[in-house]
Amino acid sequence: MAAFQPLVFSGIQPTGNLHLGNYLGAIQKFVALQETRDCIFCVVDLHALTAQLVQDDLARQTREIAAAYLAAGIDPKRHIVFNQSAVSGHAELAWVFNCVARIGWMERMTQFKDKAGKDRERASLGLLAYPSLMAADILLYRATHVPVGDDQKQHLELTRDIATKFNHDFSARIAEKGLGHPIQMGEETVQGYFPLAEPMIEGPATRVMSLKDGSKKMSKSDPSDLSRINLTDDADTIAKKIRKAKTDPDALPSETAGLAGRPEADNLVGIYAALVGRSRADVLADFGGRPFSEFKPALADLAVDKLAPIATEMRRILDDPAEIDRTLREGAERAGAIAHRTMHDVKSIVGLLNG
Ligand code: AMP
Ligand code: TRP
Q1: CATH architecture of 225-317
Q2: Burial of 115 (C-beta count, 10 Å sphere; 0-12/13-18/19+)
Q3: Which of 84, 174, 176, 210 could join 216 via S-S bond, C-beta 3.0 to 4.6 A?
Q4: Which atom in ligand 2 lies closest to the alpha carbon of residue 151?
Q5: Under a CB-based contact definition with an 8 Å cutoff, are residues 23 and 233 in contact?
Q6: By three-state DSSP, how is residue 87 classified?
Q7: Predicted confidence (pLDDT) per residue in 229-244, tens digit
Q8: Where is 60: in which H helix or E strand?
Q9: For residue 218, how far is its CA from the centre of ligand 1 (angstroms)?
Q10: pLDDT reading at 198 higher than 90
Q11: Digit-coded pLDDT (tens) for 69-78
Q12: In this structure, which ligand is nearest to the CA of 201?
């Protein structure tokens, strides 16, 4: 059988406050990838239930992520844009993966440990099984490439572990039914039903840090709004947040080695580089020796240039929720057709009665 078709899959949770980290770590890459690859972009609303079960505005937040995808330039005609809960295969495949994955694998996830806190026994089962649903998101489409920020690396390793165990445990059935594709594992080529999806975590902004503390990730949940630039911030707010961003008193170095031990400087240079599509070294070639009082206004101008039009377009798109719902529904139909075929195969491989 032929190798797996290259396919990109990624998702963002509708949990509010979409920020510059989400944009540079994920959305900006999605927009670039759609030029060369087939892509599926999902709003992972089922995952959002692990953060908070009872929510007032989950549907609105779901539309907001969809609007961000569209405003940034993702084309829902050429690619698939939809919300996770509209395709039942995500939950179905996640159940099978819950039986493939081991509890110990889940308990080792740093995101689970962070989010569950001290009293792990009281964390929801959904929070523990979160990576199993994420693996299902990707593998339901047998996606081969997953663009994400650095914080998702461990979840993608787990996705590969789940695919590997499934392929191994069911290898005889997969072969018997002729459903295997070649997978390169080191020197060896094996047959498997699920690909080992590769993370795409590259470029200067895979981990954008808080504007107030260079040792903390920029995050949706940081109580200080000054710590992040929201995708919906207006031009004045973006400029103000960059002006107030924490820095050290020294001028910028001329080479990247000079950023070591200067997390805030490193972060702002990384943000500039990612926004302009160049490397940190290129940025320092231009700004080395210059003080933050000169670099910050240049960064603010660049950020406003890139982000303000997206915010404006997002507001325009959000004015017509029925149109967003139509786009998502259409995406869900196309995603659902692929998902249906996968679930048919999976049921047959696992031995469930396939009516
Ligand atoms: P989430 O909001 O957790 O669903 O994240 C959506 C996407 O944004 C994922 O690919 C994350 O890895 C990415 N992301 C979140 N925060 C950051 C950050 N501070 N820097 C870079 N990427 C991020
Ligand atoms: N866990 C991801 C995050 O918090 C969101 C996500 C869910 C995802 N399913 C996915 C990302 C599948 C990539 C592929 O950012």
Answers
A1: Orthogonal Bundle (1.10)
A2: middle
A3: 210
A4: 15
A5: no
A6: coil
A7: 999 999 999 999 999 9
A8: helix 58-72
A9: 9
A10: yes
A11: 999 999 999 9
A12: 1
Does the C-beta of 83 come closer than 6 Å to ligand 2?
no
- CB distance 137 to ligand 2 below 6 Å: yes
Residues 27-37: pLDDT tens digits? Answer: 999 999 999 99
11 Cα: distance to centroid of ligand 2 (angstroms): 5
**pLDDT score of 354:** 84
pLDDT bracket for residue 16 (50, 70, 90): confident
Ligand with the closest atom to the CA of 134: 2
> Among residues of the chain, what percentage have pLDDT more than 90?
96
Please report the pLDDT score of residue 186 as a whole number.
87
228 alpha carbon – ligand 1 mean position (Å): 12
Contact 72, 27 (CB under 8 A): yes
Question: What are the catalytic residues?
Answer: 115, 217, 220
| Single-letter residue type at 202 | E
Please state at what angle helix 292-318 crosses helix 235-243, rounded to 10 degrees: 150
Name the token pair of 41.
Answer: 């972009």
Tell me which amino acid residue 129 is. A
Q: What angle do helix axes 292-318 and 280-287 make, rounded to 10 degrees?
A: 130
pLDDT surpassing 70 at residue 355: no
> Closest ligand to 130 CA?
2
Pocket of ligand 1 (CB under 6 A): 12-13, 21-22, 25-26, 148-149, 151-152, 206-208, 217-218, 220
Can you tell me which atom of ligand 1 is nearest the CA of 15? 2
For ligand 2, say whether the CB of 159 is within 6 Å of any of its atoms.
no
- Domains of the chain, residue spans: 8-204+321-350, 225-317
| pTM of the full structure | 0.97
| Assigned superfamily of 8-204+321-350 | HUPs (3.40.50.620)
